[in-house]
Amino acid sequence: MRRDLLIVFLEWGFALAMLVSAALDIRARRLPNLLNLAVALGFLPWAWAMTLGWDQVGIHVAVGSAVLGIGFALFAAGVIGGGDAKLGAAVALWIGLSFDLLRFFVVMSLAGGVLAVLALIWQAKTRQRLARALPYGVAIAAAGLDYWHRHSLAACLLLGC
After folding, report:
1. pLDDT tens digits, one per residue of 83-136
2. What does the domain layout of the chain look like in residue ranges?
3. Is residue 32 left, alpha or beta, with left meaning phi > 0 and alpha meaning psi from -120 to 50?
4. Cα–Cα distance between 78 and 36 in angstroms, integer?
């Protein structure tokens, strides 16, 4: 298989995983380990197809590990769920250490803010409190899709460059 076809296939898989993550988190407030693992493991053949060197792969792995550590600290503090921590780390693995990582966190925070405002509007309208935590996987997925839209060959083919 040609490398560009493999890249497009893996990037579409990444985008699909973001959409599935958001849908599952809305429906069940759970992000399955298998889905998070698939996102993380999808990075390896993508890195090979993109001809990243071992030094670059190491930086991506370090970034993903650091985000996982921060995510688990936030999970231990009760701020986010464990699936959110793992999904955030898996997406950060794809992004690596770049300005795009900062943008990922900003977009994720803004999307989380939109979720919070929508929850407040729903509570005011229905006079009911949310029975479960906000589906923050939606915010992570939105930020992942923002990254995908700006950097993927698959998005370029679909939306034009």
Report:
1. 999 999 999 999 999 999 999 999 999 999 999 999 889 888 888 877 777 899
2. 3-159
3. beta
4. 20
